Amino acid sequence: MMADAIEATGRAVKIQDSSPARAISVIDETLLEIQRDGQLDECPLTLSEIAILKEVFARTLLQTQHKRIVYPGIKLPGNAPSWKPKNAS
């Protein structure tokens, strides 16, 4: 639940263009909203464990949403022309 919310928020605000501090800020805001909503009321997690989760979420979020390297002369699939067989009319 927490990971899904953090991933969705991270994609929405484009974490890959930001610093690790921005990722942690987004994670803090998301977890605070989850807590305010009462979703952690019956959860046995301690504050220490939540702090560890924040670090792991930040590291994972930044790794999965990094910028892609641009290779010269290579077209990406979105820019590639549509393929047609040679024998097609």
> What is the H-and-E element order?
HHH
Number of strands: 0
Number of helices: 3
The percent of residues in helical segments reads: 40-55%
Protein structure class: mainly alpha
Instruction: Show unreliable segments.
Output: none
How many structural domains are formed by the residues? 1
Strand-residue fraction? Answer: under 5%
> How large is the radius of gyration?
20 Å
Provide the residue-averaged pLDDT: 81
From the spread of the alpha carbons, the general shape counts as elongated
Give the N-to-C terminal Cα separation. 51 Å
Largest sheet: none
InterPro entries: PgpH_phosphodiesterase
Structure description:
The N and C termini lie far apart (51 Å). The protein contains 3 helices and no strands. Helix 1 packs across helix 2 and helix 2 (20-36) packs across helix 3 (47-64). It has helices at residues 2-12, 20-36, 47-64. With 89 residues, the protein is mainly α. The longest helix has 18 residues, at 47-64. The chain has one domain.
Q: Which key features would you list for this structure?
A:
89 residues; mainly alpha; elongated; 52% helix
Short description:
The protein has 89 residues and is mainly α. It is 52% helix and 0% strand. The mean pLDDT is 81.
